[in-house]
Specification:
630 residues, alpha+beta, 13% strand, 3 domains, ABC transporter transmembrane region fold, 53% helix, globular, Rossmann fold, PH-domain like
């Protein structure tokens, strides 16, 4: 699907004047309706910095613009016979353009293009062969749904099923399934034990306290007594004995729960650390296999976020969040069964608020998912600046740019704070609302249950047990509402982490790749062309031959392709067109590791790893002796 439509000649100059120097055009689409629904000509232009709407106005064009950084949410809406593209900004919702149903499909890709533009930094400016063309960038689209893909990935978030994501996430538990099953059994035991106290409380009220009080209230002839002064009656021995047994049972239950909870916490903590280790090791190992093009598309801060904090969040969900969710669900099932067993009519009345809570929670989850994506992008942007600024602090100080870096950091930190405040605001509405809805169940129960006690169709102990179970029932309902945040956060982070693991290296050894043996050093380029972004050619039909022993110097301005030639010889990238041969063999037929082991490279920006100078010199040959190093 082409998102760059040719704009009419009378409107193109207005678009050119609006574009800032270096601003890249990502999408340019025509809308065939005016805001009032009449047919007209309007254009939506999306750049890497702003959203522009160009109104033809019958020959008197006008342009509206909004910064991309202010966009909180953007979506397409479908109406009867037409649709619109709306955006949520700090000051509220705005309708950008309106279009007929025939244009709905192309505009449905715009929200994903906006997300892709906000998630990744802009590449170098690319031009078509026509030097007068407007600078633009190509956006890849999903083969299944046609949505725009984030730059640098072929994974479409819209086509990923959350169930598949979670099944894949829990596959990391499989090597430790015995430990996981043991922890699950402890969870079942704790849940079952937790259902016993209300039953013992009912026995305490109906069989111990209530009969004794009734006995105190009457004399030996069954006449209501007048002297009820405290301390003047001796309780029956049978009541005291039963009281002792009930209290002992409650003490044993609480001690057992404490013991099982401690064992479960240690077990799940052990499991969580193993899962974190496996995840981080797998991601780091896979990162070593990815091509340099992956690192040119993703900032260091974003990658570090996925390896560290994202995997930690996934671990927290698997070991804590998921366990809490299982406990809550099992508790709901167990208590629900007890409620219906004790009195199905009261149970139905008490559960009236539950469908309302489910509807509210589903709506909340749908909204909060977008918010978590926004927060993640801003955290990554903040980490990216830290990853760039701290190693480059000498450059910052050399050019006296401390205040500039502070201002940039403050801006990104403010954006992160505002994104988090959106989440805080939603929670401030959602969680108290859920608490109020759940409390109405207790109010309903007190009214109808209290009337039954007064009518002598329900004992006080049974009502107390029923209310206790209802309170226990509402607690996991609130917990599940809270865990919906953690569920969406885990889904978001899992998608980000698996996006790395699903990225295929651009440079791979073929099935028949061979060991080059001892390389003599004959290098030949045959009509080699190369482009980083698919548009601007760094090398164009380049051909030359270097014989073994020759010393060649490459001279040219910055960006002429000197470093690119070295990258291609080392096969950090594959040539876009043409062929590169080493000793008469195509470089694509050679094993990368064996090839690079015989190529010495002094990088344009030298990097020293932690360790001694000798260790850094011997990095390419860890077995080198001290004499070899010297």
């Amino acid at each position: 699907m082409d998102l760059l439509e040719p704009i009419s000649q009378d409107l193109e100059p207005h678009l050119r004047r609006e574009l800032h120097p270096g601003e890249l055009l990502l999408a340019l689409l025509s809308a065939d309706l005016d805001p009032d629904g009449r047919y007209g000509e309007n254009w939506l232009a999306l750049t890497d910095e702003r959203i522009l709407v160009i109104h033809a106005n019958g020959g008197s064009p006008s342009v509206d613009a909004w910064p991309l950084a202010d966009v909180q949410r953007i979506q397409t809406r479908s109406y009867v016979g037409n649709g619109s593209l709306v955006v949520e900004l700090p000051d509220g919702m705005h309708e950008l353009v309106r279009f007929s149903q025939g244009s709905y499909f192309k505009f449905s890709a715009i929200p994903q293009v906006v997300e892709a533009a906000m998630a990744f930094p802009s590449p170098e400016v690319g031009q078509d062969e026509d030097e007068g063309a407007i600078p633009h960038r190509r956006i890849e689209h999903c083969d299944t749904c046609g949505r725009a893909l984030r730059r640098g990935t072929k994974v479409c978030p819209a086509c990923i099923k959350k169930s598949e994501t979670f099944w894949r996430l829990f596959s990391y538990v499989k090597p430790y399934k015995k430990i996981a099953i043991f922890g699950f059994c402890l969870t079942l035991t704790m849940t079952a034990i937790g259902l016993l106290p209300p039953q013992l409380n009912a026995i305490l009220i109906d069989d111990v306290i209530t009969p004794v009080i009734a006995n105190y209230m009457t004399d030996e002839n069954g006449v209501r007594g007048q002297d009820l002064t405290l301390g003047q009656r001796t309780p029956p021995a049978a009541a005291v004995e039963l009281l002792l047994w009930v209290v002992t049972g409650l003490l044993f239950i609480h001690f057992s729960r404490m013991l099982f909870n401690g064992i479960r916490s240690y077990t799940m903590g052990w499991l969580g650390q193993r899962i974190t280790y496996d995840l981080q090791t797998q991601i780091f190992s896979y990162l070593q296999l990815l091509s340099l093009s992956f690192y040119s598309r993703h900032s260091t801060g974003r990658i570090m976020t996925r390896v560290t904090s994202d995997t930690e969040r996934m671990r927290g969900f698997i070991t804590t969040g998921f366990q809490d969710m299982v406990v809550a669900i099992l508790t709901l099932i167990g208590i629900g069964a007890m409620l219906f067993y004790m009195n199905w009519e009261l149970a139905l009345l008490a559960l009236i608020p539950t469908p309302i809570m489910l509807i509210v929670t589903l709506f909340y989850r749908k909204r909060i998912h977008w918010v978590f994506h926004s927060i993640w992008r801003r955290i990554s942007a903040l980490n990216s600046q830290l990853a760039d600024t701290i190693p480059g602090v000498k450059v910052v100080k050399a050019f006296a740019q401390e205040s500039r870096e502070i201002a940039t950091f403050d801006k990104r930190n403010t954006e992160l704070r505002e994104a988090r405040m959106v989440s805080v605001k939603m929670k401030s509405y959602f969680l108290p609302g859920i608490a109020f809805i759940t409390s109405t169940g207790s109010v309903i129960l007190w009214w109808f249950g209290g009337n039954r006690v007064l009518e002598n169709t329900l004992t006080l102990g049974q009502l107390q047990a029923f209310i206790s179970y209802m309170v226990m029932f509402l607690s996991p309902v609130r917990e599940l509402s809270r865990l919906s945040d953690e569920l969406e956060s885990a889904a978001t982070t899992a998608e980000r982490v698996f996006e790395i693991l699903d990225t295929e290296p651009d440079v791979m050894d073929g099935p028949d790749a061979k060991d080059p043996g001892v390389i003599e050093g004959r290098v030949e380029f045959r009509n080699v062309s190369f482009t980083y972004d698919g548009f601007a050619r760094i090398l164009d039909r380049c051909s030359f031959t270097v014989e073994p022993g020759e010393m060649i110097g490459l001279v040219g301005h910055s960006g002429a392709g000197k470093s690119t030639l070295v990258n291609l010889i080392s096969r950090f990238f594959d040539a876009t067109d043409g062929e590169i041969l080493i000793d008469g063999v195509s470089i694509t037929d050679l094993q990368q590791k064996k090839l690079r082991a015989q190529i010495g490279v002094v990088l344009q920006e030298p990097l020293l790893f932690q360790g001694s100078i000798a260790q850094n010199i011997a990095y390419g040959r860890p077995d080198a002796s001290r004499s070899d190093i010297i």
